[in-house]
Specification:
globular; 18 helices; about 400 residues; mainly alpha; Growth Hormone, Chain: A
């Protein structure tokens, strides 16, 4: 019986890896071209175009942050597979309709709705977290991460090539088509043996944190997810401008910027399963703290880089640190959260990541505008230090959780 259960969670993992991959690819193949798509909708001055592009990017994450806890509560009552299908079908419809947007306000409105119905990757984590054997949780979370990251790597390349030939609307149609694939894969190949809590048990756990023994650790992971996301996405608004400055305006700046942007993802793709497995052996706490220290040591030297090659090497190392961070925070939450609350906790985590995706780029834009591009890296180093302090405080004030994580 145990062997049959093990085989099913593995089948679910493979199916959800495909779902994560196409979700990451679809989302990333359209996002880089939002400003160019908007510029075709009217003759906007630079400040207005930047404002609309920022709104179109951020409203998705804002609505996601607001709605995710509600979906998480519903998932703990109805199961995670229905939430996966809700997210996949919702994004199939909204992404496809976005390609038909007649003006910028319809585009922004559809992006807002898309955020409210998104959350496929987060629910994939939650479903697997409720099924995976504890001793394999780190490696499994790392493997799932490679699906999303792999999709995010190929998405911009495919989207850029297609958009250059057929126009900026086509990547949105492709995004919708890929989410249709995710819907079909989830419906036919993901099987969940969900047993909802009812009666007294359900009322006793109205708060997602009610049944969590080491609540400080879980809160630290949620805050950590937000800070990690803020740090890693903070460079997005200025990377092409900084690369242009390093290249002194000569050469193919767009291509070079794309390579620099992709390097962390390549490193994460390679390192995530290995570091996840390492966490299963030595404990996720050690991997997380080491990853944060390494992350700080990588971000700080970026302030002093003088060539694109130096920046590229450091960005690759950032990807290794990312592989030691986000999957490990998922693992720690898995180890410390009861099954009847896992979807809600993961939805709070998704909300925190969405907030980080909004706050990080906004802070970076402000710092770069007031000071210089290089000071963005000092800001991200400070975020990593704050993150390290939060994690170490949580573990030191809850000594019992350290032991449970180390033994897992």
């Amino acid at each position: 019986m145990k062997r049959q259960s093990l085989e099913q969670w593995q089948k679910n993992m493979y199916a959800l890896w495909i779902g994560n991959f196409v979700t990451g690819a679809g989302a990333s193949m359209s996002l880089p071209f939002l400003p160019l798509f908007i510029s075709e909708m009217g003759h906007y001055p630079k400040w207005e175009l930047t404002l609309y592009a920022g709104l179109a990017f951020s409203v998705t994450f804002l609505s996601q942050a607001i709605v995710s806890p509600l979906w998480g509560r519903l998932a703990d009552r109805t199961g995670r597979k229905p939430m996966l299908l809700r997210a996949a079908i919702g994004m199939t419809i909204t992404a496809t309709l976005t390609g038909f947007s007649p003006n910028v306000w319809v585009l922004i409105g559809l992006r807002l709705i898309q955020g409210a119905f998104s959350g496929y990757i987060n629910n994939a984590y939650a479903l697997i977290a409720s099924e995976v054997p504890m001793e394999k949780s780190g490696q499994t979370m790392g493997t799932l991460t490679t699906g999303a990251v792999g999709g995010q790597l190929v998405g911009p390349v495919i989207g850029g090539y297609i958009a250059g030939i057929f126009g900026y609307r086509i990547p949105f149609y492709m995004f919708g088509g890929l989410m249709l694939i995710a819907s079909l894969v989830t419906y036919f190949f993901v099987k969940e043996d969900f047993k909802p809590t009812t009666g007294k048990a359900a009322t006793e756990h109205q708060s997602a944190f009610a049944g969590i023994k080491h609540v400080r650790i879980v809160w630290a992971m949620i805050i950590s997810s937000m800070l990690i996301q803020a740090a890693t996405t903070s460079i997005n608004p200025i990377i092409s401008l900084f690369v242009k400055e390093l290249m002194h305006g000569r050469g193919n700046v767009a291509l070079t910027s794309g390579v620099i942007a992709a390097l962390p993802g390549i490193a994460t793709l390679i390192a995530a399963p290995r570091l996840g497995a390492l966490g299963d052996h030595i404990g996720p706490q050690r991997v997380l703290i080491a990853g944060l220290v390494f992350c700080g040591f990588v971000f700080f030297p970026m302030f002093f880089v003088t060539t694109v090659v130096m920046l590229g090497i450091l960005r690759f190392l950032v990807g290794i640190s990312d592989a030691a961070l986000l999957p490990v925070t998922q693992t720690v939450m898995t180890l410390n959260t009861p099954d009847d609350a896992v979807s809600r906790i993961f939805s709070y985590n998704q909300s925190s990541q969405a907030i980080g995706s909004v706050v990080g780029p906004m802070l970076a834009s402000g710092v770069a505008g007031v000071l210089d591009y290089r000071y963005v890296f000092l800001m991200t180093t400070l975020l990593v230090i704050i993150n390290l302090v939060v994690v170490m405080w949580a573990y030191r004030t809850d000594h019992g959780s350290t032991t449970s994580s180390e033994q897992a």
